[in-house]
TrEMBL record:
Protein family membership: Belongs to the PIGX family.
Function: Stabilizing subunit of the glycosylphosphatidylinositol-mannosyltransferase I complex which catalyzes the transfer of the first mannose, via an alpha-1,4 bond from a dolichol-phosphate-mannose (Dol-P-Man) to the glucosaminyl acyl phosphatidylinositol (GlcN-(acyl)PI) intermediate to generate alpha-D-Man-(1->4)-alpha-D-GlcN-(1->6)-(1-radyl,2-acyl-sn-glycero-3-phospho)-2-acyl-inositol and participates in the sixth step of the glycosylphosphatidylinositol-anchor biosynthesis. Probably acts by stabilizing the mannosyltransferase PIGM.
Main localization category: endoplasmic reticulum
Pathway: Glycolipid biosynthesis; glycosylphosphatidylinositol-anchor biosynthesis
SMART domains (UniProt xref): PIG-X
Any one GO cellular component localisation term in the record: endoplasmic reticulum membrane
Superkingdom per UniProt: Eukaryota
Protein name: Phosphatidylinositol-glycan biosynthesis class X protein
Membrane topology listed for this record: Single-pass membrane protein
GO terms under biological process: GPI anchor biosynthetic process
TM region(s), chain numbering: 192-215
Keyword hit for Glycoprotein: yes
Length: 220
């Protein structure tokens, strides 16, 4: 009975995530409600991003410079032009801010961008699944409940503004697993021949016009 009670108490930590805006450029909103008071601890969400979506490190740096978002990206060097099939998965450690009216509630938002996918057959969209974030706690002056939290292997400071070492903790009993699905528009393979023909025709026409203009108005 004691074990069941401990597990029930530890499951009180809840995580919700939501994709805001439309199109290829979205915003991920993460909300966390802890099962116990944070007691001055830093709270973060570790988000694993599949190859189909990414965070722009330059945009992230600009937001952090204006104190709008605090996060650490692994790896920190990203090819933002790479398509989905040539990209790598990323890990985002997003530092959450406390909400004013709830001592156990935290939230943060970060811009996300969808990558271009290969053309598909029979469908106009690709599905990118974003799994539920992992909640992390970093307490410099106290220790979280041992029944609900255990040390996590996260090599980063307690905030994006400090450089000292920090011991992060993660929930022993993860919240209910919830995937967030992003629908990315893709081209149809059935249209490949038509697209190639129109592209070649347009390229040839434009090249011819440039050549005519150069011969007529150019000075050789």
């Amino acid at each position: 009975c004691v074990t069941l009670d401990v597990q029930a108490a530890c499951r009180d930590t809840t995580v919700t995530q939501e994709l805001l805006k439309e199109g290829f450029h979205r915003e991920l909103l993460v909300k966390v409600e802890l099962g116990e008071d944070a007691g001055g601890c830093a709270v973060a969400a570790q988000v694993r991003l599949p190859p189909g979506i990414y965070v722009d490190p330059y945009e992230l740096a600009a937001l952090q410079q204006h104190n709008l978002t605090k996060a650490v990206l692994f790896p920190d060097v990203i090819d933002v032009e790479a398509p989905e099939y040539l990209a790598r998965a990323l890990v985002l450690l997003l530092f959450l801010e406390p909400e004013a009216r709830c001592s156990r509630c935290f939230r943060a938002a970060v811009p996300l961008h969808a990558r271009y996918h290969r053309p598909a057959r029979g469908t106009h969209e690709a599905l990118v699944a974003l799994e539920s974030p992992e909640v992390l706690l970093c307490c410099c002056h106290s220790h979280p409940s041992a029944e609900c939290w255990e040390p996590a292997e996260v090599d980063t400071p307690c905030s994006s503004d400090t450089t000292g070492p920090c011991q992060w903790h993660t929930t022993k009993h993860r919240p209910a697993y919830e995937e967030l699905v992003l629908r990315v528009p893709v081209g149809l393979r059935e249209h490949s021949s038509l697209v190639c023909a129109l592209t070649l025709l347009t390229t040839g026409l434009c090249s011819g016009l440039i050549l005519v203009a150069a011969c007529r108005y150019g000075h050789f």
